[in-house]
Amino acid sequence: MNYNIKQITNFDPHDDTVSKDVKVGGEIRTGLTYNVYSLNVEAIKLGYCTNNNEGMNYPIFLTFVNGGEKEFEIGKTGMFEYQPEEWKDINDDTNKEIKTSNTPVNQIKVYEGVSFVLDYCYLT
């Protein structure tokens, strides 16, 4: 398996903007502008970092290749990591097979004005 790695930042052009309603500091804020960045690949690993205090308060949204979107909070560290995980069903004595969860991502939405760096890996 060969991986390629790419990087995007808040300085890169975004594809679109969308309006989101999100919880910030315990309050629902409506109509917030999020920039949409298409990755143009199926990213299986990614690391997101922001050193902006505002960026730590606003969630990011990942769009999965299967079409689903999920909100992720960043928190105090300003970092978020996503990658395949290995697991096995310890409740099934007949099947000790180790499985790998792999749900590729193809888009990220970041609150407008937040400085960030996103590194992502995909298979070649």
Principal-axis shape: globular
- Series of secondary-structure elements, N-terminal to C-terminal: EEEEHEEEEEEE
Query: Looking across the biggest beta sheet, what order are the strands in?
Result: 2-3-10-5-6
Q: Low-confidence parts, pLDDT < 50 over ≥5 residues?
A: none
- Could you estimate the helical fraction of the residues in percent? under 10%
Radius of gyration: 16 Å
Strand count, sense and closure of the main sheet? 5 strands, antiparallel
Q: What is the total domain count?
A: 1
Structural class call reads mainly beta
Number of helices: 1
**CA-to-CA gap between the ends?**
8 Å
Quote the average pLDDT.
Answer: 91
**Strand segment count:** 11
The proportion of residues in beta strands is over 45%
Short description:
With 124 residues, this protein is mainly beta. It is built from 1 helix and 11 strands. It has a 5-stranded antiparallel β-sheet with strand order 2-3-10-5-6, with no helix packed on it. Strands 1-11-4-7 form a 4-stranded antiparallel β-sheet, with no helix packed on it.
